[in-house]
Amino acid sequence: MAYLAGRMLVSVEAGAPNNGKGEDTTARVKYATVRGRRHPYVSAQAVRRWIRDGMVERGVPASPVTRVGKAQNRAQKANTGADPITYADDDLFGYMRAGAKKDDAATTLRDSPFMLGTLMSVAPVHPTEDFGVMSRGVSEPVLHGHEFYTADLAAPFLLDLPRIGTFTLPNSDGVGRPNYLTEEQALQVAQAAALGAGTEMFRGQGAVRLPVEERRHRAALLLEAIAHLSGGAKQALHYGDRVPSLIVMVPFKGGVNPLAHVITGDEDGLVVRGDVLRKELAAWNGEWVSPVRVGWRPGFRDDLREDFEKVCAQEIAEGTVVVNHPRTILLGLASEMREGAWDAWFDDAAE
């Protein structure tokens, strides 16, 4: 297997975890218009930040970020250390460090092995506008407002496991530059870090690759951070739990995601389709590895869970589908990875 495909759902109750551009004194939530109806959303960038922050909270050093351009009266940029060997977040989330043309500085870029979609409300929701007054200690009260909403937000994700800790090298024609590192630079850093990196071919290109022990460790860090997901805007007024209420994951050979229509919605709200999961698994037979891991928080839409477990009763009885708490599912898989149970996932599947 090469990819971990998944879909996660975060339930927002009276929250405003990701805001758009404000109007006058009113903060607006982000939303997309779908068939004329509003669907609030949280951008993938915001959720990736939550996950990244969660890794830092768990003791993972973050790649340093520097802001450049303003003092030099140039286009403003924010660059990370662009060092994916030292920093797991640069490795997992990628980066672009644009060099200045006039300095003939190179632009370095790494595509993110962790791909995440927009956390979009599964059903149309009209946000509530809350009107506020700040009158404490001032003679003339200050008026302000903000929007918040209650919704179930779902997003697909895909983790390209073989590419974690793998950095392709540009050939003589420049191919491979998007995941730039020169061999000399990469090995120099890797040796300094005593990580034991080596060179090998990866998807038809030369590459520097960290040992599988480090690569599985980084994949586990990501899963553990999702298991402890927190963050978002307006927590002082709208604190809310951000750990996924529902998550489905399946190891897959290719970079497709068969779970897009398993967690969905209609005019009445959330829909979880056990029948869709069964049909997708049958259609992709031989392309995935059992079990499909379903994390479902107790108390969250028990009616839908009962229906799902009835539809998938045979798969659950056979162990093809495993249902447990999202934290248990995520931490369990992370632990199995650390122990080396799934090292084969960190290489592309043989045809």
TrEMBL record:
One of its GO terms (biological process) is defense response to virus. The keyword NAD does not apply. Signal peptide: none annotated. It comes from Streptomyces qinzhouensis. This is Type I-B CRISPR-associated protein Cas7/Cst2/DevR. The keyword Endoplasmic reticulum does not apply. InterPro entries: Cas7/Cst2/DevR_sub_I-B/Tneap, CRISPR-assoc_Cas7/Cst2/DevR. CRISPR (clustered regularly interspaced short palindromic repeat) is an adaptive immune system that provides protection against mobile genetic elements (viruses, transposable elements and conjugative plasmids). CRISPR clusters contain spacers, sequences complementary to antecedent mobile elements, and target invading nucleic acids. CRISPR clusters are transcribed and processed into CRISPR RNA (crRNA). It comes from the Bacteria. Keywords: Antiviral defense.
